[in-house]
Amino acid sequence: xxxxxxxxxxxxxxxxxxxxxxxxxxxxxxxxxxxxxxxxxxxxxxxxxxxxxxxxxxxxxxxxxxxxxxxxxxxxxxxxxxxxxxxxxxxxxxxxxxxxxxxxxxxxxxxxxxxxxxxxxxxxxxxxxxxxxxxxxxxxxxxxxxxxxxxxxxxxxxxx
Length: 160
What we know:
- Helix content is 8%, strand content 51%.
- It has one helix at 121-132, and strands spanning 19-23, 32-35, 38-47, 57-64, 70-76, 80-84, 87-96, 101-105, 111-116, 135-144, 147-158.
- Strands 9-8-7-10-11 form a 5-stranded antiparallel sheet, with helices on one face. The protein has a 4-stranded antiparallel sheet with strand order 2-3-4-5, with no helix packed on it. A two-stranded antiparallel ribbon has the order 1-6.
- Strand 4 (57-64) and strand 5 (70-76) form a beta hairpin.
- The protein is elongated.
- The model is unreliable at 7-12 (pLDDT under 50).
């Protein structure tokens, strides 16, 4: 028997995959793809013809869905690419804290307090301005690969 102690680090994760495989040739414009480990939205796809040494290649131009950076990748069309599971959820805004975090109301009545205000200036001004005016705001939150970010604001009327 071994006298060694084993310590396992646990991360609160159900083990669900953050991505799924999809053949490169089937990914279209406005779809999603993982390039350099980042979830991206495809803005341009071009496919080269098969050369004398094999595969047709897909050239992807995509924009990172969280930081807006442009990324490119070239993949043989018969190979699999990682595609992120992208979810978009709407939450009602309850409060904005002084340290830049928002308090959101979830569907089941709990609060979600781990999201920062958006870094995009126009979105930031819409959220702060609407909140200061006492409007009821619904924030759309996009999540993929363990990251979340506010991506849109809807005004659903003034609080009574």
